[in-house]
Amino acid sequence: MEALPRETIVDVLEERLREDILAGRHPAGSYLPPERQLADGYGVTRTTLKHAFGRLVQAGLLETRHGVGTKVLDYARLGGADLLPMLVRHDPKWVHEIFEVRRSIGALIAERAAARATRSQHAELRRLLEAVREAGDADAVQLADIEVHRALARATGNRVYALLTNTLFKAYLPVRAALRGPFTDAEAAHRRLLAVVDAVESGDGRRAHAAADAYLRDTERIMLEGLA
Predict the structure, then answer these.
(1) Contact 73, 60 (CB under 8 A)
(2) Residues contacting 224, CB < 8 A, separation 6+
(3) Residue 163's pLDDT band (boundaries 50, 70, 90)?
(4) pTM for this model (two decimals)
């Protein structure tokens, strides 16, 4: 059995700073206290603090300027979708907003896939759909289901749809274990997705849009029940 990675002091400090920023204890637009004061307050070295700052700069929460200080950025105005997993960990209510986007993007992807998918992509969808039915447990069914959606996004011929699909799945990874409700029954999960794949294969964009919308609303309802 592989040992779990140990949490480092930088990990702990990064999480504390992130929570303080997202909770508004360090408001957007404000400057953090001087490094020495902040390090003393958290009981860490300035080196540890700098490492944690570096991660939060990469995440889009902080901006450090030499000789000026470290500024808290307005993530809602300047941040990107890569912040979503962090925000979901901070507040699971973000999942509701993610699902709203998931519905609209997912239905549009199915519509575009119906118009553009090739025969080989139809075959790939069928193969991945069968993997949903053959998956052994809820976790495996959920992961197999995700691969069908990724294939639908690829079938649009637009790489941005594929990246958006990946982004949305990553966004709710922090609470994925609570969202397994629609995937506890492999046959039922297969049946739900079958309607979408059939519609895409028919080449009828409106039908595919409607089928995907129905699928996404149905699975969203079940997942939110589990999250509650």
Answers:
(1) yes
(2) 95, 96, 99
(3) very high
(4) 0.79
